[in-house]
Amino acid sequence: MFAKLCGLCRLPEKRLAYMFGFEKSGVGFVALVSCADGKISKTSNFPVSVGGDGELGMPGIPEIFSVGFSGGKYRLDFFDSGESVFFNGVRLSGNLDSIPPVSTLQAGESLFYLVVGDSKSLERLSKIDVSKWLVFFSDSGRVEDEVPFSRIRPSVEYRGLDGSGIAFCPKGFELGFMYSQVFGDSSGAAESANFIPSISDSDATITCPMCWLKFDVGDAFSIASHESLRGDPVLGPEEMLRFLPVSFNSDGIPLDPAGMPAPDVACPHCRKKLPLNYIELDRRIFSIVGAPSAGKTYYLSVLIKELQDSLYKNFGIAFKDMDPTGNMLLTQMKNKLFSARRPEEAILAKTVLEGVMYERYPRFGKMVALPKPLSYSLSNGEGEAASVIFYDNAGEHFEPGLDIEESPGALHVASSDAIFFLFDPAANREFKGRLGDYPDPQLTIGGRFDQQDTILSEMEVRIKRILSLEPTDRIKVPLAVLIGKCDMWLHLLGEKLSNPLSKEGLDMGIIDSNSDIIRNFMTDIAPSIVAGALSISDDVRFFAVSALGHSPVLLTEGECAGKIAPVPEKLSPMNVEIPALWALSRVTKLIPVK
Length: 594
Hints:
21% helix
């Protein structure tokens, strides 16, 4: 059993011995640690009753057993008080001739740790943070969530799990309680929570760009290279085996079980290959949210080109494709748009649920469709670098009523370092009224109804639900509200916007003044959008952008008849990169500001 635990933890036996203090001491003690508030009761008076109103009392719970100490051994004598008691995951029904140094104890709905004669573990337990709990699989130790105790049950139910094999423990400790015995009906069968594999006092530092779950660097999988190792038990026979490396060559590259160098790295949750150097770089996730047909795909396709040009021209920062294979579809769309000779050649396909911009990944034991990450790296030639991940999401993913467990494609917003909400004025009744007979087919074609305030509200609900925030709380993540297609409405502003970008840096004063002008304008036209944005984040700015810079045309002939298309020779993006530069200045040190 001891060897099995060491193998599961991947920790040296010496550390386990330290954790559990197997050294014998001449003077015994017994301590009770409350998981409700971290309070510790301790005594060396034997025998001592646990429960009731004594030294090791439990509010509202009668005496349930006594602990005796003699000859260096601890004995438990059970009192059949009628209280449901679980000791180390087993329903207690009789005496125990010996008890381990540290045990879990559940009496009714109250949870405790019982420590006997183990001063080192007691010291560690005195430092646990009972405001944060780790939820993990007991058989593998894979951590799935970190939440307050009140959110443990919603966290498990949200994932569609029935609680089997799920355990939880306070952050800063390893021994956990079984979910099914605390929150569900239990038959009393032995089901103990093993120890989580990573060192618990170190935070998970990596967020997977595919499934958005967190993991520690040491838990990352390597991907086998030798052809004999084709076939992964989760991903299927066509994928190479994922494994935890135990040996390395002289260059520090992991060796697969066949002895071949295996430089590629995979997420330990979804097991998908991570972009090159993803773990080493400062990672930033940028989410673009908007209603269906708001123009997110056009915006993102143009943004990549404009950002690449602007970063190098103004700041000498190289913006490079970090994953050419994974980014291939977006690259093709960008090239198609900027290389087109006729309007029909410039039409970009709408991103649809589970379309080509999506891939199926294993997440919490089921295969689900998630948007492919679009990964890019930034470096300034002075040793500073970062990576940024974009997502092209189908707008339908943010519509209310969608089962986000079966189709969790929009959950990246809760892991984002910056969020971009793209507002489509062509779908807004008030905007259309003020534009009158402005000659743009986007104002009359499509028959879309305006649900953008609902999309924004749904995004807020999901973010706060996933992050366990109160309705009145606001996130610290920068939120850029992009009022799109500004080529058709800028004349309505009444005030001229200034250019915040120069080779000296991004002028934050101009960013703020432009934002105030646009915010006041939007408060008059669409106040629900302004109110919704300000209730989500405490770092909000408003931007006027246009991916095309002109009014597209309605095609009347050929197979594209009835579709709206950009005019290639009129393509002139407006301010597309400014929101991304502002967000980068907020979350990295790469962008100079003034």
